[in-house]
Design goal:
Its main location: membrane. One of its GO terms (biological process) is proteolysis. It comes from Pontiella desulfatans. Its EC number is 3.4.24.-. One of its GO terms (cellular component) is plasma membrane. The chain is an alpha/beta fold. The chain has four domains: about 55-125, Signal recognition particle alu RNA binding heterodimer, srp9/1 (2-Layer Sandwich); about 170-350, 3-Layer(aba) Sandwich (Rossmann fold); about 365-425, Orthogonal Bundle (Helicase, Ruva Protein, domain 3), CATH 1.10.8; about 435-550 and about 560-640, Peptidase M41 (Methane Monooxygenase Hydroxylase, Chain G, domain 1, Up-down Bundle). The chain is built from 23 helices and 13 strands. The protein has helices spanning about 1-10, 25-55, 55-65, 105-115, 130-155, 190-200, 205-210, 230-240, 260-270, 300-310, 335-340, 355-365, 375-380, 390-405, 410-425, 435-455, 490-500, 500-510, 520-535, 565-595, 595-610, 615-625, 640, and strands at about 70-75, 80-90, 95-105, 120, 170, 215-220, 245, 275-280, 320-325, 345-350, 460-465, 475-480, 610-615. The strands form three sheets. Strands 5-7-8-9-6-10 form a six-stranded mixed sheet. The chain has a four-stranded mixed sheet with strand order 3-2-1-4, with helices on one face. Helix 9 (about 260-270) runs parallel beside helix 10 (about 300-310), helix 17 (about 490-500) runs antiparallel to helix 19 (about 520-535) and helix 17 (about 490-500) crosses helix 20 (about 565-595). Mean pLDDT is about 75; it is low at about 1-25, about 50, about 155-160, about 550-560 and about 630-655.
């Protein structure tokens, strides 16, 4: 217990107070000794220079009488001693010589100088203080420069040269705007894991009475923007212990050995303030696997990693320091770093669920003036796959949109527009489509909408628009009813049918195809190939993993292929992919053929109104008219709308 108290309350290093340690007495003594030596040398040189110019008083009188002195300066040192200084001409008048002599100032001396035409100048006496400062001030300046350049660097040095070996970990203090677990939502499991760590630090006896030990480390992994760093800030706000934070890139330096030195210094700071928490953000910068990849390893990074491994679980390891690390690349970390005893807990911070997204929207909208009509659950349904950072950006964009139009509150339309802006980009009203392109885009999106509407396995339609956004000329958006973690074969086949709707509508109405379905074809091909090669949804090839052809080359993998198969199997894969895509296209074409009138009516209304929601699409599909309450706009006759026209290929967006 005595050792613990010494660790908790080290002398001269209190938690929460950060500053450089006091200067060593030895260094201070050396500094004053250097200053004394400089002053002594100055005094000696100044005295020598003065003595070298001094002459006898008799010689001075003779030079005045011989006319060799033209002007002199008379001054006294404040102690009653008078001096005369000036220049005397040589006998052959080839030059001058400076002189200085001590005199007794009398009227007779002044008359002699006046009779010989010597110009006399009397200087004001210097006080003792001025004389001392004139000699000392220059050396004080020199000493100050030496102190700030060299001595402070030596004082702050760690084990490396100058301050390179010093750890850059920052000690967070308890400020007013601290973040707690109440400010974090959508990651309940991760909060529970970290809350247990905080409770262990606050009351270790509660867990140790049954023989439990404090975990050494907690690794937070997940996609970017899911809230890993926010969780670490919440731990800092909840814990009553010192919290050090550092980035993984802070260990990387141009000098070899500096990273390992900083790791050792960081853990020394932690031992002095134990129990404490050290947070390392983006630990993959120093924790990558060793001796792997093309071209071997990286010596400096490996030394840093070795030092980190030893400090976390080595012979000289002391309890009381918990490492919390965050990364979005857990697959590249060294296995030795992930074993129990170092990072005992690996917490996956996943994308928020539907309820989590709603909670996150509530947190970020606390300081936003929302209208009573805003339905955050509806906004959460329309943002599948959004991370916490994306949702925070959505709320901010909605507030900016409402401010731009001068509204007092943020309406549901602002939330919808902000979602579309974040996902697809801002509306490009200036991007005016000519009538032919607009007609082509309308039929393309109407084809997607009807294919989704007539396929029960697809998600409900949210709205259809032909307003350009970003690189897209139009979009058909869905509104999922719930989060889905698995996809059935029927649902994947339904998605393929919906993706083929735009291309099938172009071919059926215009008897031509354009590049507008480029992204549709790309996505549908990826889904079909994944069904055959990864999901085992092909009866011909059976349930086997045949590998993916677009795996990244990393850590020596992906060069020869993780899964190799024969050329005959490759041909069967291509045949199955073609079969799945062809069946989806034929099914979509049949749906559009059976609903040609609705396709034409929906397209013409899109051309006129540019945006249709689900209620309007549903009314057109059932009655051929818009629902009551909408503007009465009768669709034109089918014969006129179905007139063939040529359209230039244009790229545009696809459905979800």
């Amino acid at each position: 217990m005595a050792d613990d108290k010494q660790q908790k309350e080290p002398k001269g290093n209190k938690p929460g107070k950060k500053g450089p340690p006091p200067m060593p007495m030895r260094g201070l003594a050396i500094s004053f000794l250097m200053m004394a030596v400089f002053l002594t040398v100055l005094h000696l040189f100044s005295n020598n220079s003065q003595k070298s110019n001094e002459i006898e008083y008799t010689d001075f009188v003779n030079m005045v009488k011989n006319g060799r002195v033209s002007k002199v300066d008379i001054a006294h040192d404040g102690a009653g001693n008078h001096y005369v200084s000036g220049e005397s001409m040589d006998i052959n008048e080839s030059g001058t010589t400076q002189f200085r002599t001590e005199i007794i100032l009398t009227e007779k001396l002044m008359e002699m100088l006046e009779d010989n035409g010597v110009q006399v100048k009397v200087k004001r006496p210097k006080t003792m203080l001025v004389s001392i400062l004139a000699n000392i001030v220059p050396f004080i300046l020199i000493f100050g420069i030496i102190y700030f350049i060299f001595i402070r660097q030596m004082k702050n040095a760690g084990r490396g040269a100058m301050s390179f070996g010093k750890s850059r970990a920052k000690l967070l203090t308890q400020d007013k705007n601290k973040i707690t677990f109440k400010d974090v939502a959508g990651v309940d499991e991760a909060k529970e894991e970290l809350a247990e760590v905080v409770e262990f630090l606050k009351d270790p006896k509660r867990f140790q009475k049954l023989g439990g030990k404090m975990p050494k480390g907690v690794l937070l992994s997940g996609s970017p923007g899911t809230g890993k760093t926010l969780l670490a800030k919440a731990v800092a706000g909840e814990a009553d212990v010192p919290f050090f934070t550092i980035s993984g890139s802070d260990f990387v330096e141009m000098f070899v050995g500096i990273g390992a030195s900083r790791v050792r210094d960081m853990f020394e700071q932690g031992k002095k303030n134990a129990p404490c928490i050290i947070f390392i953000d983006e630990i993959d910068a120093v924790g990558r696997s060793r001796f792997s990849g093309i071209g071997g390893g990286h010596d400096e990074r490996e030394q840093t990693l070795n030092a980190l491994l030893v400090e976390m679980d080595g012979f000289d390891t002391q309890e009381g320091i918990i490492i919390v690390a965050a990364t979005n690349r857990p697959d590249v970390l060294d296995p030795a770093l992930l074993r129990p005893g170092r990072f005992d807990r690996q917490v996956v911070v996943d994308l928020p669920t539907l309820e989590g997204r709603e909670q996150i929207l509530k947190i970020h909208s606390r300081n936003v003036r929302l209208s009573d009509q805003v339905d955050l659950k509806r906004s959460a349904r329309g943002t599948p796959g959004f991370s916490g950072a994306d949702l925070a950006n959505l709320v901010n964009e909605a507030a900016l949109l409402a401010s731009r139009r001068g509204a007092d509150f943020v309406e549901q339309e602002d939330m919808e527009e902000a979602r579309d802006k974040v996902m697809w980009g801002r509306e490009r009203r200036s991007h005016v489509l000519d009538p032919e392109e607009k007609k082509l885009t309308a039929y393309h999106e109407a084809g997607h909408a009807i294919a989704m509407y007539k396929t029960p396995e697809c998600e409900p339609i949210h709205k259809v628009t032909i307003i350009p956004r970003g690189r897209a000329l139009g979009a058909t958006m869905s509104l999922p009813e719930k989060d889905r973690y698995t996809q059935s074969q029927k649902r994947l086949e339904a998605d393929l049918v919906a993706l083929m709707g735009g291309r099938a509508a172009e071919e059926m109405i215009f008897e031509d195809v354009t590049t507008g379905a480029h992204n549709d074809i790309e996505r549908s091909t990826m889904i079909a190939r994944a069904m055959v090669c990864e999901y085992g949804m092909s009866k011909l090839l059976g349930p086997q993993n045949l590998g993916s052809h677009n795996q990244p080359v990393f850590l020596g993998q992906g060069i020869s292929g993780a899964h190799e198969h024969s050329e005959e199997t490759s041909q069967k894969i291509d045949q199955e992919v073609q079969r799945i895509l062809a069946e989806a296209y034929d099914k979509c074409m049949k749906i559009l053929t059976d609903n040609r009138e609705q396709l034409v009516a929906l397209s013409e209304l899109l051309i006129e109104r540019e945006v249709l929601d689900f209620a309007e699409v549903d009314s057109i599909m059932k009655t051929g008219k818009l629902p009551e309450g909408s503007e009465k706009t009768e669709p034109p006759p089918i014969e006129e709308a179905a007139a063939d026209s040529e359209a230039e290929p244009k790229s545009e967006a696809e459905t979800e």
